[in-house]
Design goal:
- This protein has helices spanning 14-28, 34-49, 56-71, 81-86, 88-98, 111-123, 168-176, 191-195, 204-218, 224-229, 233-247, and strands at 75-79, 101-104, 138-139, 149-150, 160-162, 180-184, 198-200.
- With 250 residues, the chain is of the alpha/beta class.
- α7 links the parallel β5 (160-162) and β6 (180-184).
- The mean pLDDT is 94.
- The structure holds ligand PTJ.
- The site of ligand PTJ has 23 residues, from α2 and α4.
């Protein structure tokens, strides 16, 4: 195990280095899958091209996602290892402010990791965390990965599922089950990004605080339905791709 280094606060990449540390620390504490570190690297590359900021395009998606969560009768936030390591407090806060349930749902499923993630969320005030161990007894049809196992009181009966950092197969399967799907994915070209109803192309570390702030701002607005209906995911993704192409000079 290597020694921890002090990241100088004025280091130009301080924020990105802290995020890496949080993930490596999450890996050592049994929250993050080893593959989660690689997945983060891919995300970082896109974030670099997007200018490591929440673009206007992402802000629009955040507003639509907050409105959709607020309008839903049974919203569920699906939590994997990376999300639990990077923003446990924000997951709990967003659940509170939108009335969503929280469910652990892992691609590289082990019961130890499910329990470690549940404890982490409870440490930050989360209660009644769904999907851990035998609770995940329902099945998403047509899905082969371990992600098919879901909680019959959570994702299975949800009308809206918020699945940050997701794989394409489950997004497709959830949409086929008639659920509305919201995701956060720095890669606007991914199958998840294209299949979800609302895709926030932003880093989860910035998107979560923005979602919490926005949902508390628009909570009592009478135009929530209008915000959702006027949102065009395809157009939004095209705009994110344009931003990336401009960064590459094309
Ligand atoms: O904890 P588990 O077992 O459920 O596994 C979680 C990972 C993320 C390893 C698993 O779901 C996986 O392999 O995901 P993928 O298919 O690699 O997809 C992850 C997507 O999230 C990629 O498109 C990345 O670009 C994107 N991504 C990675 N880090 C971030 C991100 N998007 C937003 N914010 C990030 N910090």
């Amino acid at each position: 195990m290597h020694a921890r280094i002090q990241i100088p606060p004025n280091h130009p990449r301080a924020k990105s280095l802290h995020t890496r540390e949080a993930l490596v620390d999450g890996y050592r504490r049994g929250l993050v899958a080893a593959e989660g570190l690689i997945a983060h690297g891919r995300g970082e590359a896109y974030d670099y091209l997007l200018g490591e900021r929440t673009t206007k395009t992402a802000q629009r998606a955040i507003r639509a996602a907050a409105a959709m969560l607020l309008l839903s009768k049974r919203p569920v936030i699906s939590v994997n290892g990376n999300t639990a390591a990077l923003c446990p407090r924000e997951i709990v806060e967003l659940a509170r402010s939108t009335g969503a349930a929280i469910e652990v749902n892992l691609f590289y499923r082990t019961e130890e990791r499910e329990q470690a993630i549940r404890s982490e969320l409870e440490k930050h005030g989360g209660r009644n965390i769904l999907g851990v161990g035998p609770r995940a007894s329902a099945r998403i049809p047509e899905l082969q990965s371990e992600r098919r196992r879901v909680d019959p009181e959570g994702i299975y009966i949800a009308d809206t599922v918020f699945v940050p950092l997701e794989d394409g197969d489950r997004t497709e399967a959830l949409a086929k089950m008639g659920k509305r799907v919201i995701t956060v994915d720095l890669n606007p070209l991914s199958r998840t990004a294209k299949t979800a109803h609302i895709t926030i192309v932003d880093n989860i570390t910035r998107a979560m605080p923005a979602l919490i702030e926005t949902s508390s701002k628009i909570k009592s607005s009478r135009s929530l339905k209008n915000i959702v209906e006027s949102f065009d995911n395809k157009k939004n993704l095209r705009e994110s791709i344009k931003i990336i192409r401009r960064a590459g000079g094309t």
